[in-house]
Amino acid sequence: MALCIGPLDARMKSFRRLPSGWFSRAVQILGLVAVFGVAILAVAFGDFVREQFEGAGYLAVFAITTVASATILLPAPAAVTVGAFAQALDNIWLVGLIAASGQTVGELSGYYIGWTGKSTAGRMRGYDRVQRWMSRHGTLTLFILALLPNPFFDVAGMVAGASRFGLGKFILASWPGRAIKNLGFAWAGVASIENILPLVT
After folding, report:
1. How far apart are CA 69 and CA 102, in angstroms?
2. Most buried one in 88, 89, 90, 187, CB count within 10 A?
3. Mean pLDDT of 126-136
4. If you compute the radius of gyration of the chain from its CA atoms, what whole number of angstroms results?
């Protein structure tokens, strides 16, 4: 019995010695793979999606962008998702606006973390810099960071929550920037896919 427990105990100890961030990295990688997979399927079966699952397609855009914005991920999934579904559903405007709404809802998680005063917020990279920007031009900072693909909006959301920047103001400042950005993603996705598909079919 001791011989069986020994190796198991050693394995458990080695598992506990793994870097604390390995699990979150694995989840992010799996999330990226899943997003790219869904986007490819949406493009490949665009006609079927439009005819049978159009409503579910829009719901998928909202769900994917919400989850992606609620976690710290690369901006690539949003661009890929929005571009692919805009082409599959043949609606640049609606997909772009739904994606902006989903991302805005997802970013409320960062706002909540800052609002609750959790110590993890202040340790985020770039927190002090974004805090200075927010203290001078809060609304403009949120709009610009929402407009441009960048990793700092998560931090800006935490700063907004911590500084008690009004929730309504937070949404009104960030949603227009996200809408413009996602409409750009949708247009670029449709344009690029329409140019690429003839080359591979």
Report:
1. 8
2. 88
3. 83
4. 20
